[in-house]
Design a protein that fits this description.
This protein has 12 helices and 3 strands; from the N terminus they run H-H-H-H-H-H-H-E-E-E-H-H-H-H-H. It is mainly α. The protein has 2 domains: 4-86; 114-287, Orthogonal Bundle (hpI Integrase, Chain A), CATH 1.10.443.10. The longest helix is centred in the last third of the chain and has 33 residues, at 274-306. It is globular, with a radius of gyration of 23 Å.
Length: 309
């Protein structure tokens, strides 16, 4: 019977063979973290205890991993453990992972303030053509309701019909439809793929969808995009650093400040549930409550002041 390390390698291989290259990469990274903690010697699933998991969590934090990275590794290992339980290879232990962190923290602010959004919209002079293109990709992602870079890269020509783009989220599989604003339409026309033999709407990918080559092309494009965004953020002197997440988080935040209901924001972004949307908005929820409190206090103070006249 396979032990933990051997089984994780097998699962990662199965995912890779099935074309789930990104997920397979996460599984291999999680396995490497486990080996760094436990050592190369394999071990049985029955040796995984709450104390072992807590030690793993402490080890990851000591290595400088963020809480979200810790959560990714632990959730991946939990998925592997559950597979092992289903196959009769591991004991079913209720609440085994309860004492370790498997949530999502919102400590790191990823959205821009309105003044920085204005900088993105304004023309940026004295930049290279590549930097100008990066700015316009970011702007287009924002205009398309915070479209993730992965969905932008995989958009197909057939997804565009008139002024409407209809596509499925790569992450959740949810079908979404977005009507192009005049600004978005101009950018789509500017960057649309002119290669008639390519199925992709934009020229970010060349290889067939679902192949390892296409996955590697996407990863390369994403790294290049993030490097350019970091440089663009320095040029624009934004308060927050720019990344491929910026457009998505910023659109959600701007919508929230426009008093749009979180349920509508969730639908617009294709989230799997409103809980995901609330995770995006959590850093700003307390701020809005504090603003409301300030308004109430000011109202009372002003009413008291009237008594003196």
């Amino acid at each position: 019977m396979l032990k933990v390390i051997a089984f994780m390698r097998q699962v990662a291989k199965e995912l890779y063979t099935g074309g789930n290259y990104g997920t397979a990469h996460v599984y291999r990274s999680s396995l490497n973290a486990i080996i760094a903690y436990h050592g190369e010697t394999d071990f049985a699933f029955r040796e995984v205890t709450p104390q072992w998991l807590k030690g793993f969590e402490i080890h990851l934090r000591a290595r400088g991993c963020s809480w979200n990275t810790v959560s990714t590794y632990l959730r991946t290992f939990r998925a592997v453990y559950n597979r092992a339980v289903d196959r009769g290879m591991a004991p079913c232990v209720p609440n085994l992972f309860r004492s370790v962190y498997t949530g999502t923290r919102t400590d790191c602010k990823r959205s821009l303030e309105l003044k920085d959004v204005r900088k993105i919209f304004k023309f940026v002079s004295k930049v290279t053509p590549a930097m100008c293109q990066t700015r316009e990709w970011l702007l287009l992602m924002f205009l398309l309701r915070g479209l993730p870079f992965v969905d932008l890269a995989y958009l197909r020509k057939r997804d565009l019909c008139g002024d409407v783009i209809t596509y499925r989220r790569r992450k959740t599989g949810r079908a979404l439809s977005v009507t192009l604003t005049p600004e978005a339409k101009a950018l789509v026309e500017k960057y649309r793929n002119r290669d008639q033999s390519s199925p992709y709407l934009f020229s970010l990918l060349k290889s067939d969808e679902g192949t390892e080559t296409a996955y590697r092309e996407y990863q390369s494009a994403l790294r290049r995009f993030n490097r350019q965004l970091m440089a663009l953020g320095e040029i624009l002197r934004t308060d927050e650093g720019l990344s491929s997440y910026t457009a998505r988080h910023t659109w959600a935040t701007m919508a929230y400040h426009c008093e749009i209901h979180p349920g509508i924001i969730s639908e617009a972004m294709g989230h799997s549930s409103i809980t995901v949307t609330e995770t995006y908005l959590k850093p700003f929820h307390n701020k809005k409550i504090d603003e409301a409190n300030r308004q109430v206090v000011d109202f009372v103070k002003n009413s008291l002041a009237l008594d003196y006249y």
